[in-house]
Design goal:
Layout lengths: L2 H13 L3 H4 L5 E3 L4 H11 L3 E6 L2 E7 H9 L14 E2 L6 E2 L4 H10 L4 E10 L2 E11 H13 L1
Parallel strand pairs: 1-2, 5-6
Antiparallel strand pairs: 2-3, 3-4, 6-7
Adenosine-5'-diphosphate binds next to β3, α4 and β6.
């Protein structure tokens, strides 16, 4: 039982764990929601990132830094909708239910974001739309790490 082979067993095990088993509930607002109301949601739901939907499908992501940026820019928080401040598709990184947590963690690290929307693809009127199913963040990955090490 060399250290390496035990580590390989551990890593094989980790690669089998799917996003759907570790994800959290997504916190979603519509594009018309004011920046003010979105900030209130951020506090009430205790999250760092909120997903934005338009007609029921993912259209963007808004995080703490986006809110700070708009505050510095002198945005009228009660008037400006999140649709004007968020990061918008197609520049959104997502992950699927059946993808591995490892792939999610790699995306999070490579692109220096805190979380990914867990999505399901749907074709609506010939266009690919993303249904928001969940959220996977650095916290979920950290929790998994602790669970695996305690097991
Ligand atoms: P924070 O602002 O709390 O540090 P992030 O580091 O996740 O959170 O966000 C940094 C920037 O990346 C923000 O502009 C945010 O809109 C964007 N962002 C966050 N998550 C994603 C994602 N999954 N895909 C694309 N952009 C994202």
């Amino acid at each position: 039982y060399s250290g390496k082979s035990q580590f390989n067993l551990f890593s094989e095990e980790v690669k089998r764990i799917k996003v759907e088993t570790m994800m959290s509930l997504p916190i979603v607002v519509t594009e018309e929601t004011s920046v003010y109301d979105a900030i209130v949601t951020l506090f009430l739901e205790d999250v760092g990132t909120i997903f934005v939907a338009s007609k029921g499908y993912l259209s963007g992501v808004i995080s703490r830094k986006d809110f700070l940026k708009s505050a510095i820019g002198g945005t009228d928080m009660n008037k400006v909708p999140v649709g004007m401040v968020m990061t918008r598709r197609p520049n959104i990184l997502t992950i699927g239910l059946k993808d591995s947590v490892l792939d999610a963690a790699i995306k999070i690290l490579d692109h220096e974001v805190d979380s990914l929307p867990v999505v399901e693809r749907e074709i609506v009127e010939g266009k690919e739309q993303l249904k928001i199913i969940g959220r996977i963040s650095k916290s979920n990955v950290t929790k998994l790490f602790v669970e695996l090490c305690k097991a």
